[in-house]
Each structure stands twice: as C-alpha cells, then as structure tokens.
Amino acid sequence: MSIMVEQTHAAMVVLSGERAYKLKKPVHLGFLNCTTVRARLAACRREVELNRRLAPDVYEGVADVLGPDGQACEHPVVMRRMPEERRLATMVRAGVPVDEHLRAIARAVARLHAASPHGPGIDREGGVKALRSRWTDSFDQVRGLPSPPIERPVLDGLERLALRFLDGRGPLFEARSAAGRIVGGHGDLLADVLVVTETRGGSSCP
C-alpha cells in the first residue's frame, strides 16, 4: 500500500488506502496555537465538529496515536479519502465543466451561512480591526521565517494591497454586521480542498 504525505502551514496529512489522517503541527501562528498535545486534540475535535456541517460522511472522527508507553501521544483527524480526480481544482485544470457543481457548492455554502451562529463576538472577529490585526500578524510571521518563501518587496506589496482592501470599508463591514451577515462559517473552502461527488455539489475534505 502506497502512502502519500501532504503538508500545509499548520498540518500534515497522511494519505493511506481509503483513509486520510490529518495531524496538527506543534506551531504557534498567533491565530492558532497548537504547541501542546491537549491544544492539538482540541483543535482536531473542533475541526471535525465544524467540517461535519458540510461533509458529515467524510469526517469520521479523532483517533489516538499510542506511544511506547501505551498512552496517547497524538490525535489525528480521521477522514474518508476522496479521489484526487474529483477535486474541484483538478477538474478545472483538466477542462471539465464545473458550472453546475459551482452552483451546488454556492447553495451549500448559503445554507451553511444561514444556519451558522452570529452575534457581537463573531461581529468583532469579522470586523475591520480584527481582520487588519490578523493579516498584519500573518505577514510579520512570514517575514520572520529563516527562509521566507516570498521575496521581501513582493511580500510588502501584497500586504499593502491587502490592507488597502480594508481602507475605507468600515461602513461596509458595519452594514454587514447590522444585517447579520457576519457569521461563524467556513474560511478555508478552496478549490484544492473541495471534492465534487455524484450526489451533491461539493464536500470539504483534505
């Protein structure tokens, strides 16, 4: 059986057979602190809870990895492995028509947002001040890497563009808050992690 490993900034995903095992990395990214086993366990449980809203048949739960002493030393998220050729990004690159799938995904996200919680705390996290803080923290973290993946002038330019997007949009965010449009939804629905199935538009998966 072949085993593949995929890396993200905060996790490692081991693909083996019909399962995918996602292990949180012991990193502190400001918005995410997974430096302890307990914190990683909590993050994995929260991920399963949130992502089951869109893909209940994909997220199977959280497992225990036992150390030599028989005690749990790590806790991966266990998922049903999805076929690579059904990833939305793969289909787009292959020239497969995806219009109907995109409409189905949009409807699924709309249903999720309609059922998601909202309130003062979520409004604050989705406001201009909180977004600016998270974005600047992220750029600072990239600058602090021993070997930044992006050249400094490019990184600085990206930050200027990102912050320019927020400039002057305070009234827009306030209006969205007043209308209940800022919700605890899903902030990571990328084409690379959306899988198109035969029975519905898309599922969130590794």
Please tell me about this protein's structure.
α5 (128-143) packs antiparallel against α6 (152-166). The two termini are 19 Å apart. By secondary structure, this protein is α+β, with helices and mostly antiparallel strands. It has helices spanning 37-51, 88-93, 99-115, 120-125, 128-143, 152-166, 170-178, and strands spanning 3-7, 11-16, 19-24, 59-62, 65-66, 72-74, 77-80, 194-195, 203-204. The protein is built from seven helices and nine strands; from the N terminus they run βββαββββααααααββ.
Supply database-style keywords.
206 residues, alpha+beta, Phosphorylase Kinase, domain 1, 2 domains, 5-stranded antiparallel sheet, two-stranded antiparallel ribbon, 7 helices, 9 strands
Concise description?
By secondary structure, the protein is of the alpha+beta class. 41% of the residues lie in helices and 17% in strands. The protein has two domains: 3-81, 2-Layer Sandwich (Phosphorylase Kinase, domain 1); 88-178, no CATH class.
Mean pLDDT: 90
Q: How many structural domains?
A: 2
Largest β sheet strand count, sense and barrel closure: 5 strands, antiparallel
Total count of helical runs of at least 4 residues: 7
Shape annotation: globular
InterPro entries: Cell-binding_unc_protein, Kinase-like_dom_sf
SSE layout and pairing:
Layout: E1 3-7, E2 11-16, E3 19-24, H1 37-51, E4 59-62, E5 65-66, E6 72-74, E7 77-80, H2 88-93, H3 99-115, H4 120-125, H5 128-143, H6 152-166, H7 170-178, E8 194-195, E9 203-204
Antiparallel strand pairs: 1-2, 2-3, 3-7, 4-7, 5-6, 8-9
Helix pairs in contact: 5-6
